[in-house]
Amino acid sequence: MNDSIVEWATLVAEAELRSPLPRRWAHTRGVASRAAEVEAALGENASLLVAAATLHDVGYAPRLASTGFHPLDGGRFLRDEHGADERLTRLVANHSFALLEAEERGLREELASEFPLLEEPLLVDALVYCDMTTTPDGGRTTAEERVAEILGRYGDDSVVGRFIRRAAPEIFAAVGRVEAALAAQPR
């Protein structure tokens, strides 16, 4: 992976999100910015993290929303329309504990069979960290505030509300692991 994948990811995400979903585009830019800040902890996976952060919500684009489940729609779009790197599509399709939400939607087997979870814990956790410490408008926040914001926006009894309540302990643990990895980096 190299910087050209980040440039490509930015062009694709901007084309799909900027005009139809400006707030989602702001969040995407914020998540990508967070990824650029933590890339030192990822070594050779740094460009992959930034590309995944840039594309993580591309499945929200209206023209791509075939299942209504953005991680799966985004992963399929990247795989089918762009022939994107398998690790990238798997990261996008599984970002922020998507398997738990897929289960709430009856799509767990579909997601798991098409896009198996990567066996690269720090990389997976880093994408969770970037997404869950960025507000819908692209600003910084804590994971706790982000989970509360999602619950407030969708409601406790919605599919997303049920998912985020189930995922919260995993989200907080992932964010903690990334913060520990960042603290261990030489200054």
- Please tally the helical runs, counting DSSP H or I stretches of 4 or more residues: 10
Strand fraction equals under 5%
Residues in helix, %: 55-70%
- Overall SS class: mainly alpha
Task: Detail the topology: elements first, then pairings.
Layout (H helix, E strand, L loop, with lengths): L2 H15 L4 H17 L7 H10 L14 H13 L3 H8 L4 H7 L3 H7 L6 H12 L10 H12 L4 H25 L4
Helix pairs in contact: 1-3, 2-3, 2-8, 3-5, 4-5, 6-7, 8-10, 9-10
Short overview:
This protein is mainly alpha-helical. It has helices at 3-17, 22-38, 46-55, 70-82, 86-93, 98-104, 108-114, 121-132, 143-154, 159-183.
Verbal overview:
By secondary structure, this protein is mainly alpha-helical. Helices cover 67% and strands 0% of the residues. The chain is built from 10 helices and no strands. α4 (70-82) runs antiparallel to α5. The protein is globular and about 45 Å long.
